[in-house]
Automatic annotation (TrEMBL):
Residue stretches in coiled coil: none
The keyword Transmembrane helix is assigned to this record: yes
Transmembrane residue ranges: 78-98, 110-130, 136-155, 162-192, 204-225, 267-288
Species assigned in the record: Micromonospora maris
Protein name: DUF368 domain-containing protein
Keyword DNA-binding found: no
Swiss-Prot/TrEMBL keywords: Membrane, Transmembrane, Transmembrane helix
PANTHER family: INTEGRAL MEMBRANE PROTEIN (PTHR37308), POLYPRENYL-PHOSPHATE TRANSPORTER (PTHR37308:SF1)
Length: 311
């Protein structure tokens, strides 16, 4: 893989890291928009299988053949740059976006609303045409469910290690599920600020517990999602589309601390401008990714045509 492509995956990883720190935006959404989603899900599934085979086979003296076979199927050329990019993206977001959400909540949500709204077109287009009735029904039900979820009032939980572990296991599912924000789920249960504070203060005890919960959540969820994408692709993408649409409620600029929605009020011009900027940014990302895929397909076609000519 060329250096430029690796660098591109690093930038995608940074964008996913930023998204994971922002309530209302899913890292899975960014992965979907930038064209790495299915490779990441497939790779995570193979890693989970490798760990399971190693835990089962090695103690019984069967060796690690099955585990190595799974690891060879991981898209390391994509996963490694993504992970390298995610860490600085997450740290930068934790430092810079938290004050923006506090000092300029309406403007910030307006920008994010445009980002996520434009992102909906990605899974919708991936379903293809024509949409069947059951897929439309799944989209509507998922949208209603996500709308209701993002309207829940914020709770306050004591950051007990067991609670942190369970919250991380649930929230990390949002990393692989477009339309569901892990940070928003943490915000709903009152653990967003403690987690951001722990990240900024390098509270490694808290972060270790949180990371353990993430591993547990991924190991339980990612294989299910991988199976759904393989066996029920259209329906799964329809549900993702609905989840994205319903989650837009969390990003409506004019709402109270209790998440009651209000009609447009102050700062409507700058908020509208930021909303349009968000749409333009995602649209540019989608167009650039599709052009890259077209170029890659053309290169493969030309290479396949030239190979017989050489012989």
């Amino acid at each position: 893989m060329a250096f430029g492509e690796r660098l591109g995956h690093g930038v995608r990883g940074a964008a996913i890291g930023v998204a994971e720190a922002v309530p209302g935006i899913s890292g899975g959404t960014i992965a979907l928009v930038t064209g790495v989603y299915e490779r990441v899900i497939a790779s995570a599934g193979h890693v989970v299988s490798a760990i399971r085979y190693a835990a089962s086979d090695l103690p019984r003296g069967r060796g690690g053949i099955r585990a190595r076979q799974q690891l060879r199927q991981v898209h390391w050329e994509v996963v490694v740059p993504l992970l390298i990019g995610m860490l600085p993206g997450l740290l930068i977001a934790a430092k810079t976006l938290e004050p923006l959400l506090t000092d300029y909540p309406e403007q910030t949500r307006g920008l994010f609303l445009g980002l996520v709204l434009a992102s909906v077109l990605v899974p919708v287009s991936m379903v293809g045409a024509p949409w069947r009735r059951k897929e439309i029904a799944a989209l509507v039900l998922a949208a209603v469910g996500a709308f209701a979820l993002t309207g829940l009032p914020q709770a306050t939980l004591d950051p007990h290690p067991l609670i942190v572990l369970m919250a991380a296991a649930i929230a990390v599912c949002a990393l692989v599920m477009p339309g569901v924000s892990g940070s928003f789920l943490l915000l709903t249960v009152g653990l967003y600020e403690p987690t951001i504070t722990a990240l900024n203060d390098r509270d490694f005890g808290y972060l270790a517990i949180f990371a353990t919960g993430m591993v547990i959540g991924l190991s339980l969820f990612v294989k299910l999602l991988q199976w759904l994408l393989e066996e029920h692709r259209r329906m799964t993408l329809a549900v993702m589309s609905g989840a994205l649409l319903g989650s837009l409620r969390a990003l409506w600029p004019w709402q109270s601390d209790e998440r009651t929605l209000h009609a447009p009020g102050d700062n409507i011009l700058p908020i509208t401008a930021l909303f349009l900027v968000g749409i333009a940014v995602v649209t540019a990302m989608v167009v650039a990714e599709r052009r890259r895929l077209r170029r890659a397909a053309q290169d493969l076609t030309e290479e396949a045509y030239e190979t017989p000519q050489r012989h």
